[in-house]
Amino acid sequence: MKDYEICYYNDRNVNNGENHMHPHYEVYFFPEENASIVIQNQFYKLWKNDVVVLPPGILHRVIMHEQSEIYRYFSFGISKEYYDRLLQLSKDYNYIIESVEKGKQYIYHNTQVEFCSIQSQILYLLEEIYGNQYGKETKIFIGICDLMLLLNRMAYKQNNPQKRKEDQNLYSDILEYINDNLNKELSLEYLAGEFLVSKYHIAHIFKKNIGISIHQYIMKKRLTACKKAILSNLSISKSYLMFGFKDYSSFYRAFKKEFGISPKEYKDVCTQLESYKEV
Q1: What does the pLDDT read at residue 273?
Q2: Which helix (H) or strand (E) holds 129?
Q3: How far, CA to CA in Å, does 254 sit from each of 120, 172, 181, 227, 263?
Q4: What is the pLDDT, as a whole number, of residue 95?
Q5: What is the value of pTM for the model shown?
Q6: Where are the extended beta strands (E) located within 103-207?
Q7: Residue 229 near residue 117 (C-beta atoms within 8 A)
């Protein structure tokens, strides 16, 4: 590996190797259960949507528990030199590596929604790496920056639980609540009850701060989340139900209005990503 590498594993031979280490930073993404990992001779059970971060020189081995099953996961490697290049741009890229190196915090658990966002960024990078469009290396660099920032936000959020609501700005608090609860009803009445303010006040601060209604904002966030979920190979039916749509017809109309194509047409475009195998 020179600067970076993304591999997609889709086989029955995950745990045939021995303990090994890399001279670069390695991140594993596990969209399924039924696996564990040994890190520095310590055994860790892995759960669905886990992310594992390993600095250079750390002994490890992935173990699959059922040899008869095909197991899928991704790995992302980045050289020390390429990582230093990111740090020259911003120290914000360093939080998760510091957490791993100082606190030995190798494993991060995620919800399905959080993992879909990360996995869609990985698939976006794969598409760029295998493509040949103008500005390819620039787009890959931007994509790696986005992925690393996502991982740092993931680690920071898990290590720094939210402060109490009265210590937060109401608008920012509602934004974060919406982003974390797209599967819920999220009507004005519901949010007003959750934050103990009037629904008219919520509607006013949203229109003032973002220029669109809270209903429009929630719709856009749900549709974007569904798009990412479909890209990460979740079925269309599971995607729209996961993010708050109650029936397919309303989801279909909203999706086509927002993106110009139907969910099925978008899914068909995404299926070409399934052809990506181990690099």
Answers
A1: 56
A2: helix 112-130
A3: 21, 26, 19, 12, 10
A4: 94
A5: 0.65
A6: 107-108
A7: no
End-to-end CA distance of the chain: 11
How many residues are there in the chain? 279
pLDDT at 13: 56
Is 147 exposed, middle or buried (CB count within 10 Å of its CB: 0-12, 13-18, 19+)? buried
**Nearest CA among 278, 200, 279 for reference residue 11:** 278
Question: What are 9's strand-pairing partners?
Answer: 73
For residue 36, is it left (φ>0), alpha (ψ between -120 and 50) or beta?
Answer: beta
- Taking Cα atoms as reference points, which of 255, 253, 243 lies closest to residue 179? 243
Exposed, middle or buried: residue 61 (CB in 10 Å: 0-12, 13-18, 19+)? middle
Which has the closest alpha carbon to 107: 2, 30, 202?
A: 30
User: Has residue 275 got a pLDDT over 60?
Assistant: no
Phi-psi region of 196 (alpha: psi -120 to 50; beta: other; left: phi over 0): left
Cα 156 from Cα 253, distance rounded (Å) = 37
- The number of beta carbons lying within 10 Å of the beta carbon of residue 269 is 12
Task: Name 39's bridge partners.
Answer: 42, 60
CA distances from 71 to 8, 49, 60, 108 (A): 10, 13, 18, 20
| CB of 12 closer than 8 Å to CB of 71 | yes
Query: ∠ CA 173-176-180 to the nearest 5 degrees?
Result: 140
* DSSP state at residue 135: T
Residues facing residue 27 across a β-bridge? 53, 76
The two tokens of residue 194 are 């959750």
* Residue 58 tokens, joined: 């750390």
